[in-house]
Amino acid sequence: MKKQWIRLLAISLTTTPAWMILQPLKADDRVQDGFQISESDWPWWRGPKRDGVASGSQILPTKWSKDENIVWKTPIEGRGYGSVIAVGDKIIFETSNETTGSQSVIALNRVSGDPIWTTTVHATGGMRKNSKSTSASSTPACDGKRIYVNFANSDSVFLTCLDLTGKQLWQKEISKYVEHQGYGSSPAIYQSLVIVNADNKGGGAIVALDRENGQEVWRRQRPIKPNYPSPIVLRAAGRDQLFMTGCDLVTSLDPMTGATLWEAPGATTECVTSTVTDGVRIFTSGGYPKNHISAVRADGSSKLDWETKDRVYVPSLLFREGYLYGVLDAGVAACWRADTGEEVWKSRLGGTFSASPTLVGETIYATNETGETFIFRASPKAFELIAKN
To answer: Would you tell me how many other CB atoms lie within 10 Å of the CB of residue 163?
Structure first.
């Protein structure tokens, strides 16, 4: 069985512990309320604000190798395409055994990389179709007390809740699931709720459950189309909005009730990326059947400010100081004006990309499908490659 490797990079020439490379969660940054998360945690998909932006006060290495700036390296059985999260002393992620069909959650010690526990959530029944997919392609979410994980298994999507020792507390079937490419949507935490999307070509749903006991709070049926994004709660146009793109729609829901705030034709049928915002617009991207990036007003008017034909299908975008940054699936880094969509620069990196980039201060870290990480400046002046590892 294949092994994947989890690596943690050291901070060079400082006394800061290695785990402090992760973004602090500040109270005034939270969309979510009702629980406590340490300032050194990265608790769910794309970080505390779900925008891929890490604290700019950190000092991160820009070069590493087998002999430099690697704190630990741990072999992991199985395959998984989700991201890791970091909560307290733990790094937590999903993995799958594609021989047996099992799907598991693993916790490692954040500082040493030593295994703490492994919980098998499903012993058989894992689902995978596309060669780039796995049976463990979602990212867990943690509210500081409980861990929430999504898996597509035996023709259904399930949400499972574990405690921090790996003990299963409850499990709920979200929706029946007809597989097309694979499942990779991650759960979102908002106030007392955990929210799960199960778009699929058999007709899925987006569902909110009480994160303590798993009781269903609201449910919205979705179009009968394949689609893959995670539900994302962002503060835009002065209010918290739950955004979904794909199924040829851009949809905004009230995250507490599931009521439609606004909805408009847009995006494309199949989306993977997560929406980002500048506070006025939301930026969507997708790759089938229409390659696009678009800017849609988030005030309910549904006004389309601009649209390009760039293919940013799987890696999510970043926003910084009036500009969008992204990595096209084909391996091209790009910068656009957020207000007009005007292309500022493009530069070929190399390889193909599925992972979403992370922004730290004015530095972007982007890793391609062969494990090369490109580090470049988030500046509209020009493309500036800092390092490649």
So the answer is: 12
